[in-house]
Design brief:
Number of helices: 5
Distance between the termini: 22 Å
Shape: globular
Strand order of the largest sheet: 2-3-4-5-1-6
CATH class: Alpha Beta
Largest sheet: 6 strands, antiparallel
CATH topology: TATA-Binding Protein
């Protein structure tokens, strides 16, 4: 199980009178990511519970680079379509394994101090996958004539 330790950014948009299955959208995004040939980026499907343990699940497209994870949601809603993504970082195995120990506290403190390189990698990954999602959206909105405004394309950094 992967635990979110810090949500880094989030984006969402609603598309009236645009319909597509979630699976079609995910396949489109996966194909675009593959075309870009990003190093060490993996895609998979992840089911998240809608509410509690016994509730229904919703499938997300997971895009991972190291401990950075995008979970992308695409969902029809009536005659409309909705897309969102969450970028978060996970706890690595060592910190989860160590639990609430002094060593784990030390590792958490060290991990909270990021280098320029780590910040750049996060920004590159966020921008790259966001562009892939926007390219997939452009593909589906071409049939409706609706284009996203520059404001709608913006990423929300540091939410929650």
């Amino acid at each position: 199980m992967v635990f979110m330790t810090q949500i880094l950014s989030q984006w969402n948009n609603y598309f009236p009178f645009s319909t597509m299955s979630s699976n079609e959208f995910y396949l489109l995004v996966e194909g675009i990511i593959k075309e870009h040939d990003y190093p060490n980026v993996q895609t998979s499907r992840k089911n998240h519970k809608e509410k509690g343990f016994f509730s229904a699940s919703r499938e997300y497209l997971r895009v991972q680079y190291g401990d950075l994870i995008f979970d992308i949601c695409a969902a029809p809603f009536g005659k409309d379509f909705y897309v969102s993504w969450w970028l978060f970082e996970t706890e690595d195995f060592i910190r989860k394994f160590m639990g609430n120990t002094m060593v784990a506290d030390f590792l958490r403190l060290r991990a909270s101090k990021r280098t320029f390189y780590q910040a750049d990698i996060e920004a590159i990954f966020r921008s790259s996958i966001h562009v892939c999602v926007l390219q997939a959206i452009e593909h589906i909105t071409n049939t409706t004539g609706r284009k996203l405004s520059e404001f709608e394309k913006q990423i929300h950094v540091g939410v929650m």
